[in-house]
Amino acid sequence: MNIRSVLEKMIAARASDLHLKTGTPPVVRVDGVLYTLDEPAPNAEQLRGVANQLLNEEQRHYFLTHNEIDFAFGVSGLARFRANIFMQRGTPALALRHVPVEVPSLEDLGLPTVVRELAFAPRGLILVTGRTGSGKSTTLAAMIDAINRVTTRNIITVEDPIEFLHRDRLSFIHQREIGLDAKSFQDGLRYVLRQDPDIILVGEIRDYETMSTALMAADTGHLVLSTLHTTDVVQTLQRVISFYSPHQHDEVRLSLASNLRAVITQRLIPRRDGAGRVPACEIMVTTPTIREFILNAEKTPLIHGAVAEGVTQYGMQTFDQSVMTLLLEGIITEEEALKNCNNPNELNLKLKGINAASDRVWQPVESDEDLGETASHPEAAEFGSWPGRP
Predict the structure, then answer these.
(1) How far apart are the C-alpha atoms of 40 and 187, rounded to whole Å?
(2) Contact (CB, 8 A) for 197 and 154
(3) Phi, then psi, of 351 in degrees rounded to 5
């Protein structure tokens, strides 16, 4: 099997992911939809050959003993890829994700301006969350790149694997990969505070130890960036607290209230013009009110309402407000808006001009135009496509 040829077709199709398994032609994901490439179905022996070609000796040994492995690799003159090789029904299977060589800017990604402001926060913990494939790593890379271009910082990343490669510009960046430079996230972070960091990026928080270290680093005056697989702001807080035993919940709520700077949760939505996808973001900035809601478990569900009302003053927004903005700017269709918002019935009523008791939530994102007709503003064309998509 000529893996380079398949990867070239993947890039030509502007696909974000490639899937290979025995007996099935290669499958790519373009803007969230799976398509089959015009390539013969590989057999098990061919996929073993691909795996051996991509892995070094140490990685081959790890794969043989664990039956799966995460890593990243580059193809000269083509692109960089994040890969996972695993076993299914006794044969190898591969999932490859295209990682652009150039780190996109926050503006290219179409992220709200408050994300750039958060990137330059002097200290605290910032969590970027969302389901797999929602662009979390891309957002973090863009935030690091924004810092790297305009200020001098010592930045240390711990990733599994390293996806975007950063070149030193004004900042000094050390990128450490799990399995190559450190055995685990816990090991990678154990001595990080002795390495004189200003900013620490943790590729993903997966357990109590990593979460505790991230909070401790934020508590000592560092800016810590990381990701979680959660789908909204309130669920993110609940997930963090769930890492700890019940008797520690009050303590971790106090630590979060003191150190959590913001939560950015993403979903990618197909653009109206078919040119890729655009992120809808729910953004929570820790204000005194939200700090109070974090401390009190009974008030934590009220955070969603505080986010909805913090659009103008703090740059916060809920998913539904973000989706409404994208709809009014003509970037997404009404169908996609209703499919991706949290409260489709309420949004549908609003689009039909039917007022509800929660109308104050919509006021910051409404225009003078009739909400029943989506705007088609020229500036909509300025929003960039998500990397790897058309």
Answers:
(1) 43
(2) yes
(3) -65, -25
